[in-house]
Amino acid sequence: MLRWQIAIPFLLIKLLLGNCTPGAIALVFALLEGKRQFLETMSSLLRWRAPIRYYLFSCALPFSVFYTSLALTRLYFPWPPVLRLSPARFLLELILTLPFGPLWEELAWRAYALRKLQAHYSPINSALIIGLYWGTWHIPLWWLTLGLSRTTAVPVLGAAIITALSLSVIFTSLFNRAGQSLPVVILLHGVYASASDNMFVNVQTGQLEYLGLAAFLFTCIALGFGAGMRRQLAWEP
Fold first, then answer.
1. By residue range, what is the domain housing residue 108?
2. 138 vs 2, which has greater pLDDT?
């Protein structure tokens, strides 16, 4: 008699639960609020016909920031110019990642929570509220996956939370500009996660500096998007 055995690491199970739980909770709340609220939450998932420039931006932004951070880090911590970046590995990781963390998290943070918050607060304030919660939610996951020590925990988690706040502003602006298209931000989320993993393995020394530079660059970009949202808000009647 043949027996199939599938070994799933417990860490992977915890990561899947941590990434998928926010979306599942958001859908439950939407259902409890009624059919209309649920359909409104899911409608953004069907708005994939956004201008192609938003999809291109979603693909280009993470790599641009991480490549720049890598280049600047090498100026202070020189190492042999060996770039271990496999396009096939990146695409495979992206395809496997999209249906889990990015999809379910964006259902929670953008499709449900952002629309709720923007009904009462400005887009910037809504983005900062979500970013703070988003970063706090990920602290246990970062602690499990990054192998933090007493000396690295504070700077790494600090840079990660700053990055989460900055990304939340960028995601909010992109989501609104693209007509509340969830596929656009799901793609950005997935490319960010896959690019982050594939680029970090190339940092041979100066890992903390690399993370700090990436957080700084994302913050600068978020400030630009935030200024754009303020100008748009000022022009609205």
1. 29-235
2. 138
